[in-house]
Amino acid sequence: MATLRKERPLAAVTGASSGIGYELARQFAQNGYDLVVAAEDAGIHVAAQTFEQDGASVYPIQVDLRQYDGVEKFYEHVGQQSGPLEAIAINAGVGVFGDFARETDLREELGMIQLNVVSTVHLAKLAARDMVRRGKGKILITASVAGTMPTPLEAVYGATKAFDLSFAASLRHELKDSGVSVTAVLPGPTDTEFFDRAGASDTKAAEIAEKNNPADVAKQGFEALMSGKDRVYAATSFGTKLQGMTSRFVPESVKAEQHLKMAKPGSREH
């Protein structure tokens, strides 16, 4: 890959080989940033070629961010570039669908916590420290509308995204006078590989996801980050946005029942 250029700001994106992360990286590339991008699969090298066609110099790295050393390795590569990190999109995440007590695999759920929660905290710590020292920077954390409600049949996933949302809001407040802004992007169901990987392609949520374009979600997230907003409910579906914005006024039992209907296997209309 080409050498990163000093005259262009540097951004880092995790989970950038596909889905929302891929589209976030394209947003940065198309808006004048060079990139360090990461994913656990070899597709990150193919994706990097697209980002270069968008005008960026790109340093891709294939790494497992579930591992402490993987996070350190990724950020070490960020630090090796010619310019300081101006923005980071902490986006990598996975989901696990199923009945917690009777169906899901504990190892998968613990791995999800490592990626969705632990690596998010780890990367945010590294990036925030450097940005605060410089008095400048932007941090985008991918949460989810699922983090605003009970999520039966996604009990652990929803909890990880509730953590991400709370963490982003708290960190934003701590850093409000530092020159560093923190933004949470809350997608609804989005047309990515998420549902296939989570074993939930036959759910109503997966059906709705086909209406939500990851490129649109990424554009909304990028624009919110650039304008310094605290959060954005990013989706093309008005219903999803309304659900997120009104969630605080709806009883938990009602939200839980609504989500159960969406996540129930076989609920998708064919």
Brief overview:
Helix content is 47%, strand content 15%. By secondary structure, the protein is an alpha/beta fold. It has one domain: Rossmann fold.
CATH superfamily: NAD(P)-binding Rossmann-like Domain
* CATH-defined architecture: 3-Layer(aba) Sandwich
Number of strands: 7
Distance from first to last alpha carbon: 44 Å
How confident overall, as mean pLDDT?
86
Structural class call reads: alpha/beta
In total, how many domains does the architecture comprise?
1
Low-confidence runs? 1-5
Q: How much helix, percentage-wise, in residues?
A: 40-55%
Helical run tally: 10
Radius of gyration: 18 Å
β-strand amount: 5-15%
Describe the main β-sheet briefly. 7 strands, parallel
* Spatial order of strands in the largest sheet: 3-2-1-4-5-6-7
Please state the overall shape, judged from the principal axes of the Cα atoms. globular
CATH fold naming? Rossmann fold
Q: SSE order, as H and E?
A: EHEHEHEHEHEHHHEHH
Class, according to the CATH hierarchy?
Alpha Beta
What this model shows, in words?
There is one protein chain. With 270 residues, the protein is of the alpha/beta class. It has a single domain (10-263), classed as Rossmann fold, CATH 3.40.50.720. The protein is 47% helix and 15% strand. It has a 7-stranded parallel beta sheet with strand order 3-2-1-4-5-6-7, with helices on both faces. Strand 4, helix 4 and strand 5 form a beta-alpha-beta unit. Helix 1 (19-30) crosses helix 8 (214-226) and helix 3 (68-79) runs parallel beside helix 4. It starts with 9 loop residues before the first strand and ends in a 7-residue tail after the last helix.
